[in-house]
Amino acid sequence: MAFSLALGAAVITQAVLTAEAVQRIFVEKAALGSIVLLLGTLLAVMIIRTLLMYGNGKVGLHMAAHAKTRMRAMVLQRLTRATMFSSLQGQTGGKVSVALDAVDEADSYFSQYTPRMMEAAIIPILILTAAFALHANTGWIMLCTAPFIPLFMILVGLQTKNKSEEKYEQLAMFSGTFLDSLQGLVTLKIFGRADRQQQEIERSSLGFRDTTMSILKIAFTNTFMLEAIVMLSIGIVALELALQLLVFKSMTFHTAFLVLLLVPEFYSLLKNTGTAFHTGRTSMGAIRKVEQLLEEASQEAHQLSGSPLDEMTHPFAQSEMETYSVSGENQSTSYLPPTIELRNLRFRYASEGFELEVEQLELHPGEQIAIVGKSGSGKTTLLHVISGLLQPTAGAILVNGRPLAQWSEVNWFKQISYITQHPYIFAGTFAENIAIGAGKDVSPKDIEEAAEQAGLADMVAGLENGLDTPVGEAGRGLSGGEKQRLALARAFLKRPAVILFDEPTVGLDLHTERILQRSIASLAKTATMITVAHRLYTIQQADRILFMADGVLADQGTHQELMERLPAYAEMVHMQQRGGIA
């Protein structure tokens, strides 16, 4: 605002000095020596005006840098602090697009639009005041024609904002499709779908191009109309000044020339504001995408605001909590496994989608639980609901008598480990990937012990750099068994109270499977273990087996009890035996 106020004064001063110099030189025929001081002052004012314009631009760039830093920090904070359920929603490419492209596109709103709007709010008023003081008719013409520019800006700006939001919707879709295709390129090639996916990317890319070109079309139309309005307005003022100067002879040349210098400055500022307004509306579409992401986080926080998250220091806190020491050289202390209870639990993926139903289920501390059933019966869904990855649509999950929804998600996930069939391996070393399981700084010795307990010792010993050997993104270069053992090493380092397995031994050779089974048995000695089982012979010694059928917990009991009273379970066992699995 200060720069704009000073810039307005400099614009008017420059016009006054220019008009005075022209009057002295061409009308009064003054000698050059007599106007040196005047010309020097004019040059100084022009330099000051240039510096003020530069300063205003620097302020805008500083605002943009600060705003983008803050916006990106808020987006990243929202993504890292989002609930697990929220993190699973949407495409990764779309989130990357918001965090990078949308935030970058917001630059012009702060670096161009805001400074131009501040200038438009101050400088034209100063020029209009000077015009009224010099020649009232010119002031009235400027006052009557000027509103056409902001009116046109508003009409175009609204359309630009809508198109811009559509553009970033297309960009997010394109980014998501492109990243999904890159991540699944091998699968696409294997199934011969690479060409079709290429066509999908092309279609999405063309959609983004068309939306972008429609915004440029609006921009060109906007520029043309603004130029037309400005030229017409300046022409009307010039005609009126010519009549006063030449026909009615009611105005001096000095005054007419000064007014004629000020009028283009007035309309030029409004025109530049119109262009900046278009740019700002384009940026608003990007900013709106960021706001939507942050609004979702705000709504999430509001929904959880009634939960006593800060009152609980640990999800398994009890009045008399006992601790245990884990086996091995790396002795540590942890909490007892909790009691987990499901009451009248319902979960549905969509209004007409698959539904999970569990009337009553209690998982005792330290139990070894297996979940079995045919494909599509709800095994993995039940595991996801127990883990907190999916939120039930009805009913409750109680942890030590308290609803899971009341516990801090951070504390809850500190005490559980979930090992899937395809654990994600990050680009980095073996040691760095194992250390993720600790959630804190750990020593190299701790990592070595975790690797040894997970059955990685022989493999790591054969590597030139040992645990410092780099691993490719998503575990490139590792076999399925090596990925599973690395995931188990994370769990050994973490020592969770609850361990969830989605049958990690499926697809592994017998030798690797036995190594994993020994490691899992060791890890489960001090924790509650819940396993989704596909190979039934691996869970015959489980304390309890839950049999799922069509999304319903049909029965539960030991292996022998289910063999005797549940024909569907007995049939599954016999089929696997006949297939040579057992």
TrEMBL record:
Q: Which SUPFAM superfamilies match?
A: ABC transporter transmembrane region, P-loop containing nucleoside triphosphate hydrolases
Q: Which Pfam families match?
A: ABC_membrane, ABC_tran
Q: Which residues cross the membrane?
A: 31-52, 117-134, 140-158, 218-239
Q: What is the first-listed, main subcellular location in coarse terms? A: membrane
| Key words of the record | ATP-binding, Membrane, Nucleotide-binding, Transmembrane, Transmembrane helix
Where, subcellularly, is it found?
A: Cell membrane
Molecular functions per Gene Ontology: ATP binding
Q: Which residues form the ABC transporter domain?
A: 340-575
Q: How is this protein situated with respect to the membrane?
A: Multi-pass membrane protein
What are the residue boundaries of the ABC transmembrane type-1 domain, all occurrences included? 1-282
Q: Which domain of life is it from?
A: Bacteria
Descriptive protein name:
Cysteine ABC transporter ATP-binding protein
Record lineage: Bacteria, Bacillati, Bacillota, Bacilli, Bacillales
